[in-house]
Design brief:
Layout: H1 9-24, H2 28-34, E1 40-42, E2 45-47, H3 49-53
Antiparallel strand pairs: 1-2
Length: about 55
């Protein structure tokens, strides 16, 4: 894990936008991060396992 300290809000915004842009090209990363939480990504909607089975 890398620690990050933004110089100001604009810097933080740029960094967050850049990182989000990266992960949009690797959606499997989202699944990898969600799996330990028990949450499920279903058609770009994140649901808990109990609500996912009732739809």
């Amino acid at each position: 894990m890398t620690l990050f300290a933004a110089a100001d809000l604009a810097h933080l915004t740029r960094v967050v936008e850049r990182e989000l842009k990266k992960i949009q090209y690797w959606p499997h990363l989202i699944d990898d991060w969600l799996s330990p939480t028990g949450l499920i990504r279903d058609h770009d909607v994140i649901r808990s396992p109990d609500t996912a089975s009732s739809t």
